[in-house]
Write a structure and sequence with these properties.
439 residues, elongated, mainly alpha
């Protein structure tokens, strides 16, 4: 029957299972030699005992299957004995082989290959292609180099005095490729450039005026002193605004990274729950998630975790707690801390991931419902502000122009006001939606 497993297929499966168990035990022995933590050693010993029991059971099932296999064909007692003439004994031996082949000839269509045999044949047919690994070294930009040259010493002094404690935490959690000294130098250098830019803007508005009527740019009427008092705030507003934006930028990136990680975390946890059910080494779970390339933002956090294990030599529990401390997402921090506690106490990882996946998926559904309801409210506000309000304002301005009451503006000026007003409202709404989406 098609799909029925033969004894050879069952033996292949059992033997491959034994190989996996033996490899896992060898890996645990290597980890046992490297670790010095008693709790982790106890966990490894308990895991090895479970693997030993599984290996014994599999070995017993292999022996049972071997008892069912017969390599020789049973002798048929009903066949009459044939007399062999002396001439037949002198014939070449290959003729006997030919008759046997003819009697037991098998058609190619009747040959059934197991999945393992198909994979082996496929590997034999295909030539292994050499993988070229390219190492990319990212160098700092000229802008950052200039900032470091000018303000590195000042930045180092400010950081030693702990002037930017929150900035250092935000840089680590946002995964920005800046060390604190370089980023503080970047803030100071950008602020210096904004002072120069603010001076140029101040000089422009000191002598020129910007209006809505054509021509848009006109010379200033009146004294320079009174004009200076009106626009001197530009000299302070632009540098202060630039400093605040560059200082707050890492915290905004941290919030953005947190939102993106929280969107991937429920589905990645389901994936980790499925992997952990195969009695695999817990650290291998994160390697598999990284290799899938399906969770780009979680991949960064799990890469930091694997680096702490493979490069810095931390054990899994300490690496989990370290990454949880520096993670931008509170949910991911809770997951990693809970996983560290489960490993230390010897709990069931599959059950832990399963329950955590259920709670994360439930929270994800609630957040999606909230976003849908808020989007409906924002849509109603957008329709009333962007569509109804400009029409009412334009009608009001046209009536004022026709009647001559109040401010009378030309048609071209009204058009410019409407276009600029609608554009600004759209920009404000898009910015608000983006911030709302990442909050």
């Amino acid at each position: 029957m098609i799909g029925k497993k033969t004894s050879a297929d069952i033996l292949n499966e059992r033997i491959s299972k034994e190989k996996k168990i033996v490899k896992e035990m060898i890996s645990l022995l290597h980890n046992l030699k490297r670790t010095e933590n008693k709790e982790e050693k106890n966990m490894i010993f308990s895991h090895m005992r479970a693997l030993k029991i599984s290996l014994q059971k599999t070995n017993e099932s292999v022996l049972k299957e071997l008892g069912k296999v017969f390599l020789t064909k049973p002798f048929n007692l009903n066949v009459q004995e044939k007399k062999v003439e002396p001439q037949q004994l002198n014939e070449p031996a290959f003729k006997l082989n030919e008759t046997v082949v003819q009697d037991t000839k098998i058609k190619p269509a009747e040959i059934k290959l197991s999945k393992l045999e198909k994979d082996v044949l496929k590997r034999l047919k295909e030539k292994e292609e050499e993988k070229i690994v390219e190492k990319k070294i990212k160098k700092p930009s000229k802008y950052v180099k200039t900032a470091n040259k000018m303000f590195a010493n000042i930045s180092r002094t400010l950081i030693k005095k702990k002037m930017f404690p929150q900035l250092e935490k935000d840089l680590r959690k946002a995964n920005l490729k800046f060390i604190p000294i370089s980023y503080v130098s970047l803030i100071l250098f950008t602020t210096l450039l904004s002072v120069i830019f603010g001076g140029l803007v101040f000089g422009f508005f000191l002598f020129f005026n910007f209006g809505v009527k054509l021509p848009i740019i006109t010379l200033v009427e009146g004294g320079i002193g009174s004009r200076f008092l009106k626009i001197f705030w530009i000299l302070f507003a632009i540098p202060i605004g630039t400093f605040l934006i560059t200082y707050v930028y890492p915290s905004l990136e941290k919030k953005s990274a947190e939102w993106k990680i929280n969107q991937e975390l429920p589905f990645a946890t389901i994936h980790m729950s499925a992997i952990s059910g195969s009695m695999i080494d817990p650290s291998k779970i994160f390697s598999i998630i990284i290799s899938t390339k399906e969770y780009p933002y979680l991949e960064k956090e799990f890469t930091k975790l694997m680096n702490e294990i493979n490069i810095y030599g931390y054990n899994l529990v300490n690496a989990l707690r370290s990454v949880a401390t520096n993670s931008p997402s509170k949910k991911l921090s809770e997951l990693l801390n809970g996983l560290a506690t489960t490993i230390t106490s010897g709990g069931d990882l599959s059950e832990f991931f399963d329950k955590r996946a259920q709670s994360l998926l439930f929270e994800h559904k609630i957040e999606r419902e909230k976003q849908t309801k808020s989007a409906e409210t924002i849509m109603d506000v957008y329709i009333s502000v962007v569509i109804a309000a400009p029409m009412m304002l334009m009608l009001l301005l046209m009536m004022m122009k026709i009647s001559g009451l109040g401010i009378s503006l030309p048609t071209s000026t009204i058009t410019i006001i409407m276009v600029l007003g609608v554009s600004m409202i759209n920009i404000i709404f898009l910015t608000f939606l983006q911030l709302k989406r990442q909050s």
